[in-house]
UniProtKB/TrEMBL annotation:
It is found in: Secreted, Extracellular space. The keyword Manganese does not apply. Secreted tripeptidyl-peptidase which degrades proteins at acidic pHs and is involved in virulence. Ca(2+) binds at D571, V572, G590, D592. Its cofactor is Ca(2+). This is tripeptidyl-peptidase II. The keyword RNA-binding does not apply. The active site is at E311 (charge relay system), D315 (charge relay system), S529 (charge relay system). Binds 1 Ca(2+) ion per subunit.
Length: 637
């Protein structure tokens, strides 16, 4: 009997040992670099990050079925598809992007092994993102890395690390973690506050002539020196349209990094240029996210010098003047500075799109059009970060939301900065993100009236942005359109851009010498930051007409735009995306990388959109047609 008892005892010990070994293996799983990104030009390391500085760590898990989500996105956005306009619900989107149970368990185990309890975690609505607040020293152990304080040439400071690691068995489950190696800054692309003495001369008589009136001719509505709501409404054909669906249609704008919409300034602007809408200045909704700013008191001296709220005022004033009485929502995300010396303060991690996306995707009802005037050079962010954020925009598109982004204000790149960030410093054009994401609609800027040309302003080095992504391949909806344009480009440009990348902008709108009210005074601004809310407003009015006709909204615009919608845009054939010390990409007939398809004309857009919606079979009618077809086959008809 003894041998048997001994054998059993040894087996028990083996089982216990095996169990402990498995646990130890999980805890001690070897680390390997998951992601690395070279520190971009203009950033300098100052020293190690404070060990007790708190950061909000965002862990992005692999989405279980993104390819299926993308299929749905393109089907419901393609006017020739039977499912056109049948957008997904929030629950349907979450089901497609939620991580696997295995991924969640493994990540939870890893965090627990590092002393991070499940109770301290926060989740996105689909649980594809986990957020936890930790001191730098804990994050460094968790990711086997070292954080440093970096300073930009403009004085901005960030806490970042060029590379980070994970246990090997987690590489397949975690796609991205931030803040780590992303040096992206969601900054307005130069909506530059101009010195009026440079080239801007505007008298009170000019102002009086440009106040809203019934239906002036275009040459009376638009002054060559300045752009007002009356000019925009006349130029783009919305002046005679009456909003019909304000109870169901909505539009939104986004503010980042301390920007807000000063209601007093907005009220002055509307009273001057759209008097019947003046009350809207105090009625639009503001949703503050992650300590975003909604300051309504006068700016202090430092804020005045920085031009605080010039961007926010521009967006709100443009949208309200164009779309009133359509309800407007402003999302103000992360107003705190990216880094302050207070080590115990949880600061904005300066990854605003992740924060905003998690918030907005958790909402059941979202405005059908969202305008964002912020971007940065694509190469300032690691590929994994760009892809994860871009996937978030795809989720919005699948739910029927039109997401518009500014294409940037440096043409093909700011002179002196046109070099790759791979250590080789190769001369290259610099695409911008998120405009380069294929799931958003990128908006360029124009100037002049008849005809419009690609916008530029030599006095402040503004030039409408355009180019081709180095991260995202050309989407299928661009395949019939972009290659012919590439054949027209001079050979000396061929080594400066990615010919197989997603091309942008998609469309354009006025973006030169916009009149705004800032700090109580008339202020002229340039930028695609002006063009984006203008284009978004026109799209919102198209949605208004569709809803009034009982049709679905446009949703993700690009498949529709590149198939039929382009017919309603006025081609811009003159000018170029000047940058990098050269002419850049030229405008031409049809789509081009300087102006996209050109500028919108509402009467034509209205007609094309209504006709597109008529292509769609209702689900019941489609089912009935299939049933009849099957019956006909069965009886041999």
């Amino acid at each position: 009997m003894m041998p048997s008892i001994t054998c059993i005892a040894m087996m028990a010990m083996l089982v216990c040992t095996t169990s402990i070994t498995a646990s130890d293996l999980r805890i001690r799983s070897p680390y390997a670099v998951k992601d690395s990104h070279r520190v971009p030009r203009q950033w300098t390391r100052l020293g190690p990050a404070p060990a007790q500085h708190l950061v909000q760590l965002q862990i992005g898990l692999k989405q279980s079925n993104f390819n299926e989500l993308e299929r749905h996105l393109y089907e419901v956005s393609d006017p020739s598809h039977r499912r056109y306009g049948q957008h997904l619900s929030a629950a349907e989107v979450n089901e497609l992007v939620k991580p696997s149970e295995e991924a969640l368990k493994n990540v939870h185990d890893w965090l627990l092994d590092n002393g991070i309890e499940t109770e301290s975690l926060e989740y996105s609505s689909a649980k594809d993102w986990i957020q936890v607040t930790l001191p730098i020293e804990s994050v460094e152990r968790l990711l086997d890395t070292h954080y440093s304080v970096f300073k930009h040439a403009d004085g901005t400071r960030l806490i970042r690390t060029p590379q980070w690691s994970l246990p090997l068995d987690l590489h397949e489950h975690i796609e991205v973690i931030q803040p780590t190696n992303s040096f992206f800054r969601a900054r307005p692309k130069r909506s530059t506050l101009k010195d009026s003495s440079v080239d801007f001369h505007f008298s009170q008589s000019d102002l009086n002539a440009l106040k809203s009136s019934n239906d002036p001719p275009l040459d009376k509505a638009c002054n060559s020196t300045a752009v007002t709501p009356l000019c925009l409404r006349k130029l783009y054909g919305t002046l005679d349209y009456t909003v019909q669906s304000s109870n169901s249609n909505q539009i939104a704008l986004t503010n980042y990094l301390g920007e807000a919409n000063n209601r007093s300034d907005v009220a002055i602007f509307l009273q001057q240029f759209r008097p019947e809408a003046a009350g809207a200045a105090y009625n639009f909704t503001v949703q503050v996210i992650a300590d975003g700013d909604d300051q309504q008191t006068p700016n202090n001296a430092t804020q005045l010098t920085a031009g605080k709220d010039t961007e926010g005022n521009l967006d709100a004033e443009t949208i309200l003047a164009m779309t009133w009485p359509t309800p407007l929502t402003a999302y103000n995300t992360g107003g705190s500075p990216p880094y302050t010396p207070d080590a115990l303060t949880v600061n904005n991690t300066n990854e605003p799109y992740l924060t905003w996306l998690q918030y907005i995707l958790a909402q059941k009802d979202i405005p059908q059009v969202i305008s964002t005037s912020y971007s940065d050079d694509e190469q300032t962010v690691p590929y994994s970060y760009a892809v994860s954020v871009c996937k978030g925009f795809a989720q919005l598109g699948a739910r029927g939301i039109s997401v518009l982004f500014a294409s940037g204000d440096n043409g093909v790149g700011a002179a002196g900065d046109c070099f790759t960030n791979d250590g080789k410093n190769t001369t290259s054009f610099l695409p911008v993100f998120p405009a380069s994401c294929p799931y958003v609609t990128a908006v360029g800027a124009t100037r002049n009236i008849n005809p419009e040309i690609v916008a530029f302003d030599a006095s402040n080095k503004f030039s409408s942005g355009g180019g081709f992504s180095n991260y995202f391949p050309r989407p299928s909806y661009q395949d019939p359109i972009v290659p012919p344009y590439l054949t027209t480009l001079p050979s000396q440009l061929h080594t400066l851009y990615n010919a197989s990348g997603r091309g942008y902008p998609d469309i354009s709108a006025q973006g030169y010498h916009f009149l705004t009210i800032w700090n109580g005074t008339i202020t002229p601004l340039d930028g695609t930051s002006a063009a984006t809310p203008t284009a978004a407003s026109v799209i919102s009015l198209v949605n208004d007409a569709l809803l009034a006709a009982g049709k679905p909204v446009l949703g993700f615009l690009n498949p529709w735009l590149y198939k039929v919608g382009y017919k309603a845009f006025r081609d811009v054939v003159n000018g170029s995306a000047v940058g990098c010390g050269m002419a850049g990409f030229p405008a031409g007939v049809g789509w081009d990388a300087a102006s996209g398809f050109g500028t919108p004309y509402f009467p034509d857009l209205h007609a094309v959109a209504l006709n597109s919606s008529s292509f769609r079979l209702s689900p019941n009618l489609y089912t009935l047609s299939i049933t009849i077809l099957v019956l006909c086959i069965m009886v041999g008809l």
